Amino acid sequence: MKNKIFSSILFLTLFIFPLFAQLKLPKIVSDGMVLQRESAVQIWGWAAKNEKISIRFIDSVYQTSADSLGNWKVELAPSPAGGPYSMSISASDTIIINDILIGDVWICSGQSNMELPMKRVSPIYETEIANSENNFIRHFEVPDKYNFNEPQKDLSAGSWQKANPKNILSFTAVGYFFAKELYDKYKIPIGLINASLGGAPAEAFMSEEALKQFPNHFEELQKFKDGSLIAKIESQDRVRIQAWYKLLNEKDEGYYLSHTSWKDPLLNTSKWSLMKIPGYWSNTKLGNVNGVVWFRKEFRIPSSAAGLPAKLNLGRIVDADSVFVNGVFVGTTGYQYPPRRYEIPAGVLKKGKNIIVVRVINEQGEGGFVPDKPYEINVGGKTINLKGDWKYRLGCVMEPLASQTFVRWKPAGLYNAMIHPLLNFNIKGVIWYQGESNVSRAEEYKTLFPALINNWRKSWNQGDFPFLFVQLPNFLEAQKQPSDGGWARFREIQMKALSLPKTGMAVAIDLGEWNDVHPLNKKDVGKRLAISAQKIAYGDDSIVFSGPIYKSMEIVDNKIIISFDHCGSGLVVKGGRELKHFAIAGNDMKFVWAKAKIENGKVVVWNDKIKNPVAVRYAWANNPEGANLYNKEGLPVSPFRTDNIK
Asked: Could you tell me the pTM of the whole model?
C-alpha cells in the first residue's frame, strides 16, 4: 500500500510540476506586440523558482533568474523604431514571439466614448475602414474586468491585432484616428492598448493608495472587497430584473394575451392611435408611462426593390426594442444607447404595401424614438423615409424598473484588473476620454482627475509621460437664454488639469450631438488629440496644438476686451458670420446675450443695455449651439467665463 501511495504521489508530482514550472508570459507580451522605441523596455513573466532565463532580441542576449516566487524581469536596451522582429525567451522551455514592432505605445482609456469601436461608427467611415490596411498600426483590447481585493498580475485574455478592414471594426475609433494621424506624419509604428469601459467613473481607474485622499471612495472600496456582498447585490438585481420582465411579458396584450400577435401584418389597427415619429410618448395621451408600447407603420416598396435585402435604420430607441417587417423578426437591442441598424433579409420586402412593427420596452423615464436621428430603409439604391405618423397602442403599464447596481464601476476595481497588469509595459503616453459619469460631481473632479494622472505616472514609474484628454463635447438641448449648465462647469474643471506638466486637451465643443452622449464624429476627436501629441509628446514647437484659451479681460467703457493664448495665425469667425454665444453681465451678475467682434487679435464684447459690464461668458452651456470662435488653424476656443461664481 505504501508503495502504491508513493507511486501515486510521484506521478502527481511529475505531472503537476511542469504546469507550475512552465515558462509563462503576460498576455500583453505576445505576437504582434509594439514595444516602446528609445526606451529601456521591460520584458517579464513567470517560471520555476530560481530558474535561469535567457532572452535573444535583435542582436543582444539578456539573462536573468526567476526569484523564489518564480517572478522574473529583464530590461532591454533602447532601440529605434523598426521591425518586424522575433524574440526568443528560454528557460526549461522556449517561447518565440513573432512579428514585433518597435514604435510608440499609447494607452487609450476612459469610458464609452473611448471604448466605442469603429463598427459603431462604420456608416460614416466606410472609406476609412476600406483603406485601413496598415501593418504598423496595432491594437490590444484589454478585457473588461474588475477586482477590488488586489492588483492583478496579468490580464485574463487579449491579443495584438493589425489594422485592416476586418480587425479595425473592434478598434477604439478615437484611438485609431489618433494613431493614423501620427503614423501618417511620422511613419513610426503605433501600438494602441485599449483599457476603457463604458460608464466608468474616474475613481474606478485609481489605485487603492491614491483613493485614500478621497474617503468616500476609499470606504466604498473596502465594502466591495466582500465577495459575498457582491454576490448578494448581483443576485438581488438579477432576480428583481427578471421578475420585472417576466411580469411585463405576461401583461403585454400584444405579446401573449391577444389571440393575434400585434406583430401580425394583417392585424386590424383601426382603433390604434397616431403619433409622430421620432418623439416620446409622454407627449401623447399616454403620458409618461413605463412598460410596453407597440408601433406600426405602413410603407410602400416599388417593384424594382421588391425581394431585395435592405438596411433598416431606426435611429435610437428608449429603452429596448424588437422589430418585425411583414411579420418577420429583423432585430432587437436591449438598451437605449446603440444605433438601431438592422438587416432586412432578401425576400421579406414585397411590392406595394409593407408593414413595420416595433415593440418598445421602456424601463424608466421617457420612452420613445430619439429625435434628430435617421429613421429609414435603404433598398435598391432608394431611401424610404419612415418618419411621420405611426400607429401605436399600449401593451402594458409597469412600475418603473430601478437601475441595477453596476459593481464594475466601483472604486479601484478597473485599476486593479485593467491597468495594473500593464504597468511593466513601457508606453509613450495616455489618451483619455472620460467624464460623463463624473459630471454631477464636478467639484470633486477638480482634485480627482489630477490625482488620477499623478497616480498613473507614479505607478508606471516613467516620469511625467504625456497625458492627453478630451474636453467633453456639447450635449443636451440648447437653451434659448444664457445658462449655467453642469457640463459647462465640468469642462472648466477639466481645463484646470492643464496646469500639470505634459498634459494636453482636445476641445470637442463642436463635435457632439445634443441628443446622443455618444456622438459619431470620432475622427476629429482623434485628430485633435494627435495635434496635441505632436507638440507635447513629439516636441514639434512649430505646430499650433491648441485652440484659443482665455487669458485675460479688460473693461473699457461699456465693453469688455478678451485676450487669448494659442491664437495661432489669428482669430476667425467660423463660417464668416457674426460671433455667437457670448454673454455679458453687469454688477447684478445676470447674464444676457452680447454682441462680439474680433478686433486686433482680441474679442470685444458688449451689450448696449449693460453700461457697466463686469463679466463675460462664452459657450457657457451644456450645449452652446452655434459657438463659432476659432483660430485660423481650425481649432475652436474652449468655453470660458471671466467670473468665479460658485
From this structure: 0.94
